[in-house]
Design a protein that fits this description.
The complex is a heterodimer of chains A (261) and B (362). With 261 residues, chain A is mainly α. Chain A contains ten helices and four strands; from the N terminus they run H-H-H-E-E-E-H-H-H-H-E-H-H-H. Chain A folds into two domains: 172 residues, no CATH class; 71 residues, no CATH class. In chain B, 75% of the residues lie in helices and 2% in strands. Chain B is built from 16 helices and four strands. In chain B, a hairpin with a 2-residue loop joins strand 2 and strand 3. In chain B, helix 4 packs across helix 13. The chains are: A mainly alpha (261), B mainly alpha (362).
Chain lengths: 261, 362
């Protein structure tokens, strides 16, 4: 299923962190944790209120409902945070020099937190009961419910989890948060997931890295060599998405699987 | 041969039979033809400019019908139809502005351009379900970026201005009523054409491949060719609608044809009812009029402070209510407005029950 509201969770993650740390003056790390919990709660609410009643509907109806949720969340974000952009403070404001390269420490935080998030997700999906149940659900719902997995709980958990991860991405990644940035974030996320192979946790990191690198490199190359403006950058991600979907739908690292009829 | 049989059939049909069989379209036609005559007396008291909006409804109906053929009948999701509208709009207005081709020809050429581009990207039709949705979404982003960045041709974000009005050979359509008739005559013909298409060999093939592509192929249906055909047809509709849009507004920029438009088009189809040709009108009407009705409601009460508060918060309230309506319709009328309501009247079945089960198609 595609959740069109996924990008909106990232937006909420960023904006909530801003509110907690800059308006309520909570220490930034604590603020981040609270923001992630809040987005998870929003995700859970969304599932119970809007997705759960649609459990027997056609997939396209569910997708349209997530579009509705995304429109609603965007309007709410604009209601509470009406300005164009908010500066989310960095975790630690210093820079590090390593092997002659100076980096803002925020970059390290991004790397570290991404790694931690991915590790946790991996462990969750492969070594816990709930995670394995969720995986089973995504493979075959009927079969999963036959062996005693509570499908409706799994759906609730997976929405909360993906909202929490989306929120984390939003607050770590964006130095600026604004209500309008949701959709492009969602597309980039989906592209990374597809490049790494859907359902492959570690593939997603490589996918993300690869997409980011290719985008920067091609945009730079076009600009320096052909003098084409860097405005085409946004199109590159979309192009990567289409090419990978056509040529390697199982992802760069995935194995090709037969299609069952 | 076929023509002769058709003539015989028409000669044998009594007018009463014809009317009974085509009651819906006839009523619609009479409504549409007479609408500009009496709309003035209605639009004043309720504070909605009906005629102006109805032109848009016609345009969106054209796209929605095409998308409905693709999504409702063939089961292929597309998030790229806003882009096809953009391509049609730019093709038509550039040809009219730069090459000074008469508008009635540029509209046809715009359809042609949209079809060509849809054929170029048709390999993505191999993908299924969400993958197809994401690939068409990628196409929408690419075409938006290209329209924005090709500044030498499209003037980028500034947009094109002074696009000529709609015209027929020798006549320029200047008034709003003229534009209304121009658009709705095209839209009505397209509705009739699509209805007949659905009941033809092609339509049955599409329904078959919607249900199961493998089964359809074993029955000898060339599924990939049919998918390409219907994709190109719906792209042609979108290109036509985009061209009409450009010529009645005389200003376009890439921002109009962003991803949001594609999503709104999808919403129209599902809201009106999938696999329902007439549902497309309902979907387009609701999407076009809902914001205007919301805007007009405070005027009905004539309360000054309420109106003030409403117009201050309008930019937030409108998407919020739109989102909620969308979700509620999906939950309570999963088969769309037309299907839900017509089932209610015809079979006394609650519109809140979904006659289509999960697992059919996408």
């Amino acid at each position: 299923m595609i959740n069109f509201a996924q990008g909106e969770f990232a937006v909420f993650g960023g904006l909530l962190t801003y509110t907690f740390s800059c308006v309520l003056h909570i220490p930034i790390l604590l603020a981040a944790v609270i923001a992630i919990i809040c987005t998870a709660i929003i995700g859970a609410l969304m599932e119970r209120l809007f997705i759960y009643p649609l459990r027997n509907a056609q997939i396209i109806n569910v997708i349209i409902a997530t579009i509705g949720v995304s429109i609603l969340l965007k309007a709410l974000a604009r209601l509470f945070w009406p300005e164009e952009a908010y500066k989310v403070p960095e975790f630690t404001s210093s820079s590090l020099t390593f092997l002659g390269v100076t980096q803002r420490s925020q970059t390290l935080w991004v790397f570290g937190l991404t790694l931690i998030a991915v590790m946790l997700t991996y462990i969750f999906f492969n070594h816990t009961r709930v995670g394995k149940g969720m995986k089973a659900c995504s493979i075959n719902r009927e079969a999963a419910s036959l062996v005693g997995i509570n499908i409706s709980n799994m759906s609730l958990y997976s929405f909360s989890l993906s909202a929490a991860l989306g929120g984390a991405a939003g607050l770590i990644n964006a130095p600026y948060a604004s209500y309008g940035s949701g959709l492009f974030l969602g597309v980039k996320g989906f592209t990374s997931a597809v490049v790494g192979g859907l359902g492959n946790t570690f593939g997603a990191i490589f996918g993300g890295l690869l997409v980011g690198l290719i985008e920067e490199l091609i945009a730079g190359f076009l600009q320096v060599v052909f003098g084409i403006s860097s405005g085409y950058r946004d199109a590159i991600t979309a192009l990567i998405l289409i090419v990978v979907l056509l040529l390697r739908p199982q992802g760069i690292f995935g194995r090709r699987e037969g299609v069952k009829v | 041969m076929k023509f002769k049989r058709l003539v015989e059939r028409i000669a044998l049909t009594r007018p009463g039979d014809f009317l009974r069989r085509n009651l819906g379209p006839t009523v619609l036609l009479i409504f549409l033809l007479t609408f500009p005559l009496w709309e003035g007396s209605v639009s004043g008291p309720v504070h909605i400019k009906f005629l102006e909006r109805m032109r848009l409804v016609g345009i969106y109906t054209i796209v929605a019908v095409g998308l409905n053929l693709l999504l409702g009948y063939a089961g292929q999701v597309s998030l790229g139809h806003g882009a096809f509208m953009g391509i049609g709009a730019y093709a038509s207005s550039l040809l009219a502005l730069r090459a000074h081709v008469p508008v009635y020809l540029t509209i046809l050429m715009a359809m042609l351009v949209a079809v060509l581009i849809s054929l170029i990207i048709s390999p993505i039709l191999r993908l299924r379900g969400h993958y197809l949705a994401m690939a068409t979404l990628g196409f929408a982003i690419i075409s938006f970026v290209v329209l924005r960045e090709m500044t030498w041709l499209t003037k980028g974000n500034e947009g094109l201005m002074g696009i000529p009005k709609l015209s027929l050979p020798g006549v320029e359509v200047r008034t709003m009523g003229g534009e209304y008739y121009f658009i709705w005559i095209i839209a009505f013909l397209i509705l009739i054409f699509s209805r007949n298409l659905v009941n033809s060999r092609l339509g049955r093939a599409l329904k078959a491949l919607h249900h199961s592509e493998v089964a359809a192929e074993t029955m000898g249906i060339n599924t990939s060719w049919y998918k390409i055909k219907i994709f190109a047809l719906s792209a042609a509709y979108a290109g036509l609608a985009g061209a009409l849009f450009a010529h009645i507004h005389s200003f376009i920029n890439p921002g109009i044809f962003q991803l949001n438009l594609s999503i709104i088009l999808l919403v129209m189809v599902v809201l009106g009812g999938m696999a329902s040709i007439w549902g497309s009108i309902a979907g387009a009407t609701v999407v076009v009029f809902l914001p205007k009705v919301l805007e007009a409601i405070p005027y009905w009460f004539g309360n000054k402070s309420l109106t003030q508060w409403f117009s201050n918060n309008y930019s937030n309230l409108e998407p919020m209510i739109f989102g909620i309506v969308l979700i509620l319709v999906m939950i309570f009328m999963p088969s769309g407005l037309t299907r839900g309501l017509s089932d209610f009247f015809r079979y006394r079945r609650s519109p809140f029950v979904n006659p289509l089960k999960r697992g059919s198609g996408i």
